[in-house]
What does this fold into?
Amino acid sequence: MIPAVYGESWTLKELMVLPNEFIYWSIQIVMYPFMTGLVAGSFILSSLYHLFGIKALKGVSRFALVFSLALLPAANLPPLLFLQSPERAHYIFITPHFTSAIAAFGLVVLLYAALVAAELWFIYRPYFVESEKALRAIPGLGLAGRLRRVLFGWLTLGARDIGEEALRLDARVVKILAAVGIPVACFLHGYAGFIFGAVKANAVWMTPLMPIIFIVSAVVSGIAFCILCYAGAMELRKLFLRRQFARRHPHACSLAEHRLAGIEEVEVRVASRYLAVFLLVALVLELLDVVFRGYTAMKSWDLLRQVVYGRDFFEIFVLQHGVGRLLPLLLLLLPGRTVKRTMAAAALVLVGVFMMRWNVVIGGQSVSLSAAGFMAYDLPVAPRDISAFKEGVAGALLVLGAPFVLFWMLNKIFPVFIVERAERAIKT
Amino acid sequence: MKEYVWRPMYVVVLIAALSLAVRFFLLPHDFGVHEGGYKYGYYRLGNIAEWESRPALFRSADDCGDCHRQSESLSASPHAFISCQNCHGPAAGHPEDPPTLAIDTGRDLCLRCHADLSYPAGGRDAVPGIDPLGHHPFRSCVGCHDPHHPRQEVQP
Amino acid sequence: MNRRTFLKDAIVVITGAALPAAALEWLDPRQVLAENPQIRWAFLVDTHKCAGCGFCVKACKAENDIPYEASVTRTWIERYVVTQSGELLADSPQGGRDGFTSGSIDLPGGTRVSEEEIIRGFFVPKLCNHCASPPCVQVCPVGATYATPQGVVLVDRQWCIGCGYCIMGCPYGARFFHPVHKSVDKCTLCTHRLTRGDASACVEACPFGARQVGNLHDPNDPVTRAVVSERIGVLRDSYGSRPRVYYLGLSKEVH
It folds into this structure.
């Protein structure tokens, strides 16, 4: 049997392509910056409230922060699914070679994870203390309850002071962490852009604009993702309340549902404004890149032009810029915007950002080093073998689904909505 | 500022310290910066010896002559400059194991050089060429041509 | 490599390339070289001599355990042709593993140029350039690929995590994933043969003397002599990688 050459099964060569050239960086390397972008973007969204005190974003901010932590491990799945020797992945911490743009990535991710976890700790500390106290008060607690009590006890790290002064201090620390976190989040994703932008052998990738483009599109995708998920969760909660209420009062309207809808409308409206602004910046930067390359028309443009205006025209101008940028921009800016319309716009934005990652990673590899040939990527759909599973549609869906499972688990420790309810209870 | 504020940091420092301890045990002793500096010379030193100690499959060109005396006519032949092992196969282990080598007498081997390209093509111009489809197609070359003395017809 | 050896390397090439300058400030390249007895391997390809037989590719695959049937290869031959209409085309079917036995060109994607349309052609063997500033080494995140003091770029199969960043970083397409070992693989210049005093397998196999390996620090080495005295070229100089595979008769069409 002929041993399978990596990449051969999904690479279609055209004209003169060197024998060792294949689409080596496949769908998982598309997922990787996409997921990291969501991590960084959702953190930046959450910081808008903590740092700049944009009160209207309070609910979505906490939601975004917890989701950011849930997205983080998922963002590390793609490299693990892609590496030829994933069991050696930890070598990146043992012998980091910092002249490589990948080497510090693990460290930046960990630093970032620590920051997010710390910020969450300061936000949820009162909840941990209260929960532990509440569980302690229940007599004859079962095993599960006792385990929960121990867990919350540990999570307090022994800091059980929730006096007014301590809470004020917590808020100040959260502000500081959010302030530190923004540059770290930008660094995290700018760094992902640098991984591509610094490859001098690849004419499509090599531009100093790449980190900036990546950061802006990360913010765009993060905000869109949080709007979509937050509004989705709120819709579910409303549906749940309506059902509950309808059982008791079949002909009346629920006040709680009404209030929830009010919160949702305000938060989504404010977040969507930020989305529109960043969307515009992203569009300008990405078009600037193409215009600049076309105007300067260096030697590599001969081939790039064929990719941009020919082979990948549909992916770049129709899907990425048209469906993913202009259409949602219209949906957001035209009068009569509703929550549902904003959700549709956010979904389209996510499609656009995904296509941007696709066009960078796959499109960037489609030009042969011979400068006389092209490669096309045939995404494996059916998981015929382990490689087609890992680096095919199934693997990508696995990566996409992972943060939701993680969010569901994290929500047990950092409940996104319960605190909000408790705070309301305190107020009234 | 109250002390508890630093507790998350203690957790981070503890994890970092543990990781460094694990790294200490996992780091190969000869891994480090060698000649070439951190940019080009950061590697596991023992790997050079691993590559250098690989067994060679092809013997050096003079080795064959140690046992197989080259006839005068061969050294005058236009094929004298071709490495024996190009046709006779790599000589690793020979003559202990394998005692004889698998000789490639296939037509494809000869055509590598002797298939005529009808246009000037660098080094190929100096080699006599045939049209593979016109010149006794599918027949074995060595039936008529002696590979060691290509200018002489094979004596039947 | 340290600054000292780099400077000496540079002097060697500069004195060879700029003879009038050398006449003013007489620096005999041979003297410079003799002062530095270290080994610095370099490779010389004479494109005039290459006949496209592919024995180099075949020998390399056997010597270095690259499955013959696999399309990846540590060295390959490119054929460049010019058609009657002045169009330039290139091909490298299976890296030239089985030689170029047909005059016509069949490119993936259905482009076909018949033998009659072609007015001239030539062959260019390629391999890892063992750059003095290897971009592939710079981008390895774990230190699994490196340049040896003798100027050979190697991959540590036990340390490579298989991220493929070096494959992306190489401007020459010299790297690939080994179909069996799963780590990145590339030309080692047959360093295991060089240390035993033998030439690289491709050099031994080439019937036409189109490939030579030599020590740049030995003034009497034929490769050094050619590098110093002939008009030589290197591939894709603009990447700043300072390749150490030198070419005689490199045409402007070759990329």
